[in-house]
Structure formats: structure tokens, C-alpha cells
Design brief:
Strand content: 15-25%
Helix content: 40-55%
Number of strands: 11
Number of helices: 13
Largest sheet: 9 strands, antiparallel
Order of helices and strands: HHHHHHHHEEEEHHHEEEEEHHEE
Shape: globular
Structural class: alpha+beta
Amino acid sequence: MEDLQEIIDYVEKHIQNKLNLKELSDFMGYSSFYISRKFMDIYGIPLTAFVRIRKFQYSIKDLINGMKVIDVAMKYSFESHEGFTRSFENILVFSPSNVRKYFPSDYSVPKVNLLVNNKQNSEEDSKMNLFDDMHKIIFVFLKKSFEEMKAKFSNEIQIELYENNFVKISDNGRGIRLEENGIIKEEILKNIFEGKPITKLEYLVFGDIPLDDLKLINSLCENLTLKVYRNNTCYTQDFVRGIPQHKILSSPCNKNNSGTEVTLKPDTSIFGKMCFQKDKIENLVKILISENQLDAKIDFSEHINSKFTISI
């Protein structure tokens, strides 16, 4: 049994049913213990957790469309309004009644994207994968800054590490053009950065993080503040798990040069208490310098916070 696509298809077809482990194992013709263990071995996620996630993903669509929480709970065969809400909050952090605050109105139920494990990872391997993925968040933003440097629109990139695992990445590149004829274009940042909250269980089925998807990277951040400097104006947007918190703010600034500044903190519900390491970041910087064939130097200073400066 190389995969369990039949059981995944069954869940999708009967998503509104109660779908307990016995029903699913009876459908496959195996014991509950065997199916549960096999699903975990193949996909790295409990079968019951997969079913809950799919039910909640479908629920989100109905809640956005205006269905009452109690009606959604009954539609997807939860025993009570309270049980649905409690389980929903345990998985997604926020309550069903706040869905519209965190998800766009055009939300669509994502396709199932369970990746088969080629090997069973030990707990230590899993921690290392999380650690590497957390640093990929920095890598994605650095990659964009290095593209500006390679195109000769920037000659300096700074990385600063702060307490509580915050990191700031800034460059003196062009900055994103957000204003046209005096009107701020909200949709520009939305199209580039706006994501949606991701739970740890959802995250575990992603596989490798795409190294060009800023929406996904933003969704993996507990907090992210973006500042764009352009034409003596500072444009600011704050995100929480990928969701913008207000309209883009603009204010005059004394910064003559243009540029982009991102301050972020990875989601502790996914990455726990892991912290960025300066040695790991320095290695990522060296990789990007080499890939972009830049004659750049790295300066590192350690005062209140750790700071890297990459310049050409």
C-alpha cells in the first residue's frame, strides 16, 4: 500500500459526514489501528487530524458566505456548537466568528496536498527541518534584496537580530511603487504579500517551502511589518499571520534614498522557541553572494543586537 488516495477521496466525497476512524477503516477493509498507523507513516499526519483540517477548510468557505456558526457545525456533523468552536480554535487559533477578519472574501477550499514521506523522520530530524525552514523565511526576503543589488539598484543590505526571535532585513533598493497620482494602491501589497493563517498541522503537509512565495512566507510569520521608502515617503503595513491589519499608512520621512524594510517574527505555534542563528544566516548570505556573482563583503557587529551589513 504505497499511498491511501482512496481514503483521501472518500473523505472529500463525504466531508459533511461524521467520518470517524471506524467508518474510514471499514471502507478500506483494514483495522482502525492499521489504517491510523499507515496514514501517519505515509503522510506524517494523523488521519483524524487530516479529517478535521479538511472539515475546517470547508467550514471557512461557508462562514465567509454568511452561514451561522451553529449551522456550519451541524452541516459538518459536529456534536455541538461549543465542540465545533473549541476544536476550530485549537487548530486555527482564532474563533469561527472571526473568520472574515483573517480570510479574504474570495477564499477557496485548497486542494489536498499531502506529500508521501520517503522515510520516517526522527524527532531530531523533524526539529532540524523546522529549524532550516525557519531560516528559509529569511532567505526568501534576502533573495529579493539581492536581486536589487545584482541589478545595481542597491548597494547595501542589512540584517539585524533582536530579542524574542525578531529579525529586520532592509535594503536601499528601489522600493515597491505603491502610489500613483496621489492614490495608494492597496491591491499591490495584497497581490504580493497577503496570505492566510496556517496551522502547524497544515504546515506539515506542505513539504519544502517554495522559495519565491511571499504570501506563504508571510503566513508563516506571527508578526511582519513592511516599510517601503520611496519619494521621501514611508509606507507601512502590518501583517499578523499573513493578514493585513489596516490600510497602508503613509508618512513623510527624512530618508532620501528608497528601499524596503521587513521586520518579522516566525510563528511560535509552528516553530516553537527556536531562534535564528547568526552563523546560519551568514552561510545563507554567502550562498546568495555566490549565486548572484557579487563582489560583496559582509560586516558583522554585535552590540545590543546582532547586525550584518552586506555591501558592494
